[in-house]
Every structure is written in structure tokens, then in C-alpha cells.
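Continuing the series of single-chain predictions for the mutant panel. This is the parent chain; the variants come on the following pages.
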Amino acid sequence: MPTISVFYGIVIRMYFNDHAPPHFHARYGEFEATIKIEDLAILEGHLPTRALELVKAWAAAHQVELAVDWEHCRAKRMPAKIDPLV
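Parent structure:
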């Protein structure tokens, strides 16, 4: 599972050839959530409130890049790294 970004202890990853809808995985410590790219809704899992706010702010700024990376992963190609939240 490629890591596409890391910031503030949060790791963002995507699986190769993962199931729809387009999404990414965010991990913070022992917490993990699967987040839909289109509307940033949590599909499953849980993150602490502050971590979730940071993930959503980052994802909102990078939705186009996330969608492109999703297509790369679906095609079993390596996704591009995405700049971290600063």
C-alpha cells in the first residue's frame, strides 16, 4: 500500500486496485479511517476530531491529485506523492 503523504503524524495511503468508491486511508497512531475523495465522508473507521480536521483540510486542497492517484492505483501504477499539510 503506497504512502502518498505524511504530516503531523498522519499517514495517507491508497491500496492498489482497491474497491469503489474512490477513497484513501488515513492513519493516526492506532486510529484509521477510510475517507471518500468526492465528499470527504468517512466510509469506515475513526480518527480523533483534530486529526480528522487536518486530514479533511489537506484532502480538500488536493482532491484533484487524490483522484489522479486513485486512478493510478486502480491501474496498479505507483501514485504520485502529494505535498503534506503545512
